[in-house]
Each structure stands twice: as structure tokens, then as C-alpha cells.
């Protein structure tokens, strides 16, 4: 098989790494890829939003399966386009990817099909939103409706802060057109977990549990990012919570999407807030989480290619995933200033030393190759990911890897996995 992975981040490096291990695969391409994916695939200089270019490449190279990593090409309709030309592709069609591309659509869907979530209202003007905020009080959550690379959520501690966030979004200053509508919702207390599942639109096959760390600083302080680290399994997802997530969240959502004429194929990611035995849904994503993808694929024993193919063909029935008993932890190393304006072009040292550590792999995200040197080129630069017999052991190993890697201004959280170790 020839497989094309679309994307250039840590998630896509992990996918290329895992796919390249399959005995079914002869060749992997990655568009546009990064210096990390180049170790497992041939990078192709086509941007993720160049759907015509990607289609032309897939046809020319007779690609057997295309795997879409990021949300942008899904929301632009790449799956619809490829299927129109008879090409096999893994990912949600455009009308199904709306579950991530519009938070308002997602919230309305949850309300209609009784998926537990926070109370909310949708606004396009500041004054009605401000009146609602004053009525419900703080803390309150303000979300840009559209795609904002995981950063379009503000947890406001005061009503004034929430109104300022709404004003910033609706003016176009914060997230451009993604903030032309805002969702204001009640604040949910508890512990967050990531619940991912493969689905062919009917059958649902859950992945192992995982937990992300969205805030930029230790102790979940500071602004939200695309994710500063993740681990799997997540002890907060008990057997009872897993069952609730499937029966109360995943099944009603997949069934609801089908009833809406938007059959969902791909990987469906539910961000859950767990408090005691209560499960509520924060949001849905139409793709693998990044960085959750990295520890999940490190733990996945099964060949991923038959699963991706079965989803793309709409026949997941009878498929199973085997997991390693070990835990996995990913620590994201980011550029100075992220998630705001960040530096680029700093040379990265210590990559080879880190990867000499047993059961550790460094996934590239925001890196570039310049004059034979690996340099920083993005906000989230590397995902240092390690296995261990326990989460504690995986945490210690991952941070040994982090300690070996340096560049000027490198930033990372020092408490990834602490909640799991505490349990």
C-alpha cells in the first residue's frame, strides 16, 4: 500500500511513525510533513489547505489510502473531494466535520440528542451576550464558534473579563472569522479527559483513555494552548465513566449525526468534564487530539492500517485494538512566548541524546531543517513521549528526555501526568 498522511505537526509525525511500521505498507508520504516525518515518510511540499494539489498528488501516485491529520482540510471538504474521485480517505466529510468547525452546531446537536453538556447561548452581538453573562455570573466560558487551533476558549474569572473576551472575539481581533459568533456557557468544575473513538458511522470502537493539559503553565494556569502534554491511560476514566461516555455521549452523537444526514466516519474526539460519577461534554473534535495522539499510538499494539482502512470503507464491524499494558506520557516543548507571539529559528540541541533513552521517542511538531540544522519553526516544537510500567515511570522517563534537549527560550510544563500519579 501507498499511504499519504496530511499535516505537519506532532500528531502527523506519530501517524507516519505508526503507519510506517505496518507490513501492509510499502511507501508513506507526508504533506507537507516536517523533519521528523521525513524519517518515516517522503515529505511532499503541498499545504494542507491546497485540496487541488493534494488530490492531484494522490491521483498521480495512485495513493491507496489518505489519512487526514488536522481539522482544516476536513472542514474544507477534502474527504468529499477525494471520494468524488473514487479515492479512499480516512476522515470526516465536510458536513460531519462541522461538529468541530462550529461550536454552535455542536452544542445544538448535543441539546437535541440529549448529550450531557453545559448550559449555553449563542451570540453574534456584544450587548445580548453581556446581558447573559451578567445574568449567569462568573466564572463563565466564552468560545469562538469556528476553528481556532485549540485556543478559542476563554475561561473568564469575572463577568468583566468575559464581556471583554466576547468583545474581542466579535470584533474579529482575537480569532478573525472564527469569532464571528460566540458560545457563552456555564463553567463546569471537575477533571477533564479526552475520549477518542474510531467510528464508521454505525459501529464505534473506543481508543484507550487519555488526558490532555491545555493551559500553558503548571497547575493549569495561564491561557489555553493546543495542548502542553498528555498521558494514557487516564485513571479518572474508570470503567463506569467509560461506560457512561459510550452510552451517554458517543452513541447518541454518532446516531444523531446519522439522523441529521451527516454520517460521521473517522475518529471522534470528545472532551469530557468528569466530576464524581457525572460526565458532561465540553466539545467535540473531528480528528485525533494533539498531543493525545502521540501517547495513544505509542501504546497501540495493533497495526493501525487495517483499522484506518475499515473506517474509510465504512465497515468497522468485528475490528479490535490491542493495547500495551504500559503507560505513555508526552511532554510538549514549546517556543518562548507560545501561545502568543513566539520566536522561530532557534537551533535545537540534544535530540539524539534524548532518543538514546530506551522506550522514548521525540515527535516533531514545529521544527524545520535549515542548513543541515534542526531549528524551531512553530509554537509547539516537540512532543517528548515515553513508555513506562506505570504513569510515574513514564513521566520520569519523558522528563529525562526533556532534560537532554535544549534551545534558547524553550518552555515546557513540569507537572504533566501529576494528576494521574496522584491517583
Mean pLDDT: 95
| Distance, first to last CA | 43 Å
Biggest sheet record: 5 strands, parallel
Low-pLDDT regions: none
Number of strands: 22
Measured as a percent range, the helix fraction is 25-40%
Classify the secondary structure makeup into a structural class: alpha+beta
Please report the number of helical segments. Answer: 14
DSSP strand (E) fraction?
A: 25-35%
Gyration radius (Cα, Å) is 20 Å
Given the C-alpha coordinates, what overall shape results?
globular
**Strand line-up across the major sheet:** 3-2-1-4-5
Assembly type: single chain
Molecular structure report:
There is one protein chain. This protein is of the alpha+beta class and 423 residues long. It has helices at 10-19, 51-60, 71-76, 78-84, 94-101, 103-112, 126-136, 159-170, 239-259, 293-299, 304-313, 351-355, 391-404, 418-422; strands at residues 2-7, 27-32, 42-43, 65-68, 89-90, 120-123, 140-144, 153-156, 182-186, 191-199, 204-206, 211-212, 215-217, 221-224, 229-232, 266-275, 278-285, 327-334, 360-364, 367-370, 373-376, 380-388. A hairpin with a 2-residue loop joins strand 16 and strand 17. Helix 5 packs across helix 6 (103-112). The protein is globular. The model has no long low-confidence stretch (mean pLDDT 95).
Amino acid at each position: 500500500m501507498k499511504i499519504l498522511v496530511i499535516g505537519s505537526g506532532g500528531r502527523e509525525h506519530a501517524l507516519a511513525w505508526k503507519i510506517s511500521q505496518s507490513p501492509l505498507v510499502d511507501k508513506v508520504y507526508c504533506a507537507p510533513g516536517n523533519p521528523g516525518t521525513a524519517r518515516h515518510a517522503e515529505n511532499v511540499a503541498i499545504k494542507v489547505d491546497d485540496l487541488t494539489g493534494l488530490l492531484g498528488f494522490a491521483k498521480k501516485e495512485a495513493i491507496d489510502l489518505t489519512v487526514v491529520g488536522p481539522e482544516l482540510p476536513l472542514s474544507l471538504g477534502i474527504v468529499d473531494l477525494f471520494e468524488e474521485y473514487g479515492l479512499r480517505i480516512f476522515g470526516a466529510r465536510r458536513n460531519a466535520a462541522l461538529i468541530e468547525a462550529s461550536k454552535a452546531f455542536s452544542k445544538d446537536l448535543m441539546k437535541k440528542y440529549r448529550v450531557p453538556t453545559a448550559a449555553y447561548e449563542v451570540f453574534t452581538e456584544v450587548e445580548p451576550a453581556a446581558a447573559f453573562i451578567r445574568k449567569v455570573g462568573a466564572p463563565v466560558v466564552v468560545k469562538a464558534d469556528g476553528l481556532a487551533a485549540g485556543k478559542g476558549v476563554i475561561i473568564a474569572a469575572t463577568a468583566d473579563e468575559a464581556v471583554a473576551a466576547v468583545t474581542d472575539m466579535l470584533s474579529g481581533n482575537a480569532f478573525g472569522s472564527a469569532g464571528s459568533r460566540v458560545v457563552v456557557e456555564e463553567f463546569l468544575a471537575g477533571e477533564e479527559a479526552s475520549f477518542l473513538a474510531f467510528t464508521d458511522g454505525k459501529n464505534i470502537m473506543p481508543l484507550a483513555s487519555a488526558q490532555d493539559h491545555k493551559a500553558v503553565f503548571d497547575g493549569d494556569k495561564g491561557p489555553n494552548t493546543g495542548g502542553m502534554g498528555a498521558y494514557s491511560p487516564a485513571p479518572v476514566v474508570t470503567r463506569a465513566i467509560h461506560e457512561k461516555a459510550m452510552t451517554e455521549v458517543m452513541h447518541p452523537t454518532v446516531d444523531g449525526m446519522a439522523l441529521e444526514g451527516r454520517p460521521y466516519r473517522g475518529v471522534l474526539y470528545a472532551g469530557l468534564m468528569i466530576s464524581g460519577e457525572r460526565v458532561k461534554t465540553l466539545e467535540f473534535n473531528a480528528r485525533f487530539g494533539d498531543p493525545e495522539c502521540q501517547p495513544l499510538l505509542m501504546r497501540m499494539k495493533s497495526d493501525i492500517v487495517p483499522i484506518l482502512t475499515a473506517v474509510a470503507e465504512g465497515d468497522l464491524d468485528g475490528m479490535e485494538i490491542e493495547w500495551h499494558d504500559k503507560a505513555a506520557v508526552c511532554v510538549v516543548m514549546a517556543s518562548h512566548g507560545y501561545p502568543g507571539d513566539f520566536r522561530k529559528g532557534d537551533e535545537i540541541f540534544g535530540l539524539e541524546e534524548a532518543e538514546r533513552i530506551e522506550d522514548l521517542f521525540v515527535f516533531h511538531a514545529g521544527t524545520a531543517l535549515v542548513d543541515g540544522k534542526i531549528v524551531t519553526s512553530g509554537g509547539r516544537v516537540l512532543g517528548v513521549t515515553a513508555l513506562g510500567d506505570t504513569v510515574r515511570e513514564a513521566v520520569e522517563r519523558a522528563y529525562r528526555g526533556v532534560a537532554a534537549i535544549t534551545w534558547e527560550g524553550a518552555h515546557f510544563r513540569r507537572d504533566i501526568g501529576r494528576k494521574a500519579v496522584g491517583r
